[in-house]
Amino acid sequence: MLKCLKKTKFIFPSLILVILLNVSTVFAGSFNVEKISSLPEVRSHGGAEYVNGKVYIVAGAQSTSQMLNTTVVYDPATNQASLGANIPTARYTIGETATMGDKIYVAGGNVGIAQSNAFEVYDTARNTWSKLANLTTARFGVSMAAYNDEIYIFGGKYDVSDIKTVEKFSPSTNTWSSMKGLTNARRYAGSAVIGNQIFIFGGGIGSTLTPVNSVEVYTPSTNTWTTKSNIPTPRWGFNTVLKGSKIYLIGGMNTTGYVTQIDVYDTLTDSWSTLGCKLPEGLSFSSGSLVDDTMYLFGGSNAAGFSNTIYSFNLTDISCPTLQASNDSINSLT
Q1: Most distant pair of Cα atoms in the chain: their distance
Q2: Which residues fall within 8 angstroms of residue 123, CB to CB, at 6 or more apart?
Q3: How far apart are CA 74 and CA 72, in angstroms?
Q4: b/e per residue 199-218 (b: at least 16 CB within 10 A)
């Protein structure tokens, strides 16, 4: 292992954050882990999207009582971050976010213990947030996907119940339409768009978040649902990543605790496999984003609480070893 420790400055408007950056590289064949650093604040239950060379980390919380309204703009090329415009509604437990063009959409979530119906969009080119028509049903822990210039919201939890509700948002008219619901209610599930279909993976239900192992596939053109092979390791609060014809499920939790193995779904054969590598620690509700072949995980929740760690690793080596990373925190904030 090659390690070097250095100080790196993240420059924010009106803030200077001096961060200890531990850049460690683990070599094993063609697999390596590198550019591991820390967010300027602990953050969990938010979202991340990659747009035009930058990763935007939005919403989330520092604790269950301290919502975040900051937008962190992370540049993978320089390993530096800045602050974007604040999101109008500070909230967490949003579930997933979605991107269409230069814009990032955020739906629902919790503002404290209150469930939100807020639906807002961030224009990355203009660095502005705008409020859109509210969700028909307030909820948190939704799955979310962009398809054919429209946004689809799946499931989540409303009041005390997990729901099957599916809504479609049309940006051109700023209106919502009700679509055919999920077969199984769920929250904190993952989604991925493959061709002309939207896949919904796993999630949890009930007061104890019993994990769901089913995979449902929605076809927008016919407003119909079908099923695929079940997830080998059911989970909730994970990241879903599409790379080529394969979908990676990373992190999350189930009834046995944190899930560290990475399950891979092959869309061509409707089959599952598990990578030889594991996450360096149990991690759920991190904000994940794929940049070329490199997967980034920002913050999340681990056994010690909410985290500010940034993990990065390459998805192209399917025989990777256990990953290693460090969790250096902010040295000073002035």
Answers
A1: 55
A2: 102, 103, 129, 130
A3: 6
A4: bbbbbbbeeebebbbbbbbb
List, for residues 36-69, the tens digit of each pLDDT value: 567 888 999 999 999 999 999 999 999 888 999 9
Which residues neighbour 28 within 8 Å (Cβ) at sequence distance 6 or greater? 317, 320, 321
The CATH code for residues 38-306 is 2.120.10.80
DSSP structure string for 198-217: EEEE--EETTTTEEP--EEE
Q: Determine the pLDDT at residue 198.
A: 98
Tell which phi-psi region holds residue 77, choosing left (phi > 0), alpha (psi between -120 and 50) or beta: alpha
Cα–Cα separations (whole angstroms), residue 65 to 62, 204, 283: 8, 23, 20
Distances (CA, A) of 221 to 180, 282, 299: 12, 38, 36
Predicted pLDDT at 274: 87
Q: In this structure, what DSSP letter does residue 133 have?
A: P
